[in-house]
Predict the structure of Xanthine phosphoribosyltransferase.
Amino acid sequence: MEALKQKIIANGRVLPGNVLKVDSFINQQIDVELMTAIGQEFAKRFANQQIDRILTIESSGIAPAIMAAQAMKVPLVFARKRKSLTLSADIYATKLFSYTTQQYTDVMVDKRFIQPGENVLVIDDFLANGQAVEGLIDILEQAQATLAGVGIVIEKSFQPGRQTIEDKGFQVESLVKIASLSDNQVRFAD
Ligand code: 5GP
């Protein structure tokens, strides 16, 4: 997606630890025009599928997911992060390792918001090692819902997330693929 690439070139910053900071247009300040186009692009890429719902994770997945949900005219639910979970029968819960905080986080979705048999599209802002997406897949399995595919705004293709998800047999659509962030330079894969 060319507009997103250009925005990354102009405003993205490479931080130590292979982290791309995009807080001026995706993660804190949001470029709504770009985000609208991102939502429409996801709708186009998954147009061949009957999607019932979109699932993402707070907080940075919500903006792209909400624009995709609007473009696809489907409901959106996001998994909440909790420091500690009081186990409840009314939630689906899983534990995942956060790439950016380097800590384990409990995440949960209220059982009312995913129905068994639904075909659910997972959306997130970044794909690195695949932990966030794997956590969401775990929640969908608990809910006996089907994963329709995974939509990612920025894929770091030099990390193993895509391979992990494809090995499970799922479709991954990334709007931009980054081949390397070494020497503080963003190099695109395509
Ligand atoms: P994964 O779980 O695939 O290892 O990492 C994906 C999650 O970590 C995303 O939800 C995203 O919020 C965060 N993340 C991973 N890499 C980056 C990055 O380079 N920049 C930013 N801003 N977030 C990242």
About this structure: The chain has one domain: 32-178. The chain has a mean pLDDT of 95. Residues 16 and 48 are 39 Å apart (CA to CA).
